[in-house]
Fold this sequence. Notes:
Number of helices: 1
Distance between the termini: 162 Å
Number of strands: 0
Largest sheet: none
Shape: rod-shaped
Structural class: mainly alpha
Amino acid sequence: MDDTLAMRDLLVRLDQKVGDGFAQIHAKLDAMExxxxxxxxxxxxxxxxxxxxxAALADYDAVKKRLATIETERAAExxxxxxxxxxxxxxxxxxxxxxxxxxxxxxxxxxxx
Length: 113
């Protein structure tokens, strides 16, 4: 009977150690799964950021092109306004010249008739 109890105690201790070993293995596997899930989550976040960055870069390029167009149009408008001022100055000078000539020659024209 003594051998049976010793054998039973040995089996109980062995069962306990095997159970503890499996518990440790399961704990390590759970930790590894949590770590893998964390890596997957970070990888997904990085992929989302990359997608958003591409979209932001596309938006930036569109804004940059539009800005270049606006700057070109503004330069053209400034040139047009400068040309318009030049034409206004030229027309004003011509009117002033004609008015000066008219003041001098109109009385002579009426006097001759």
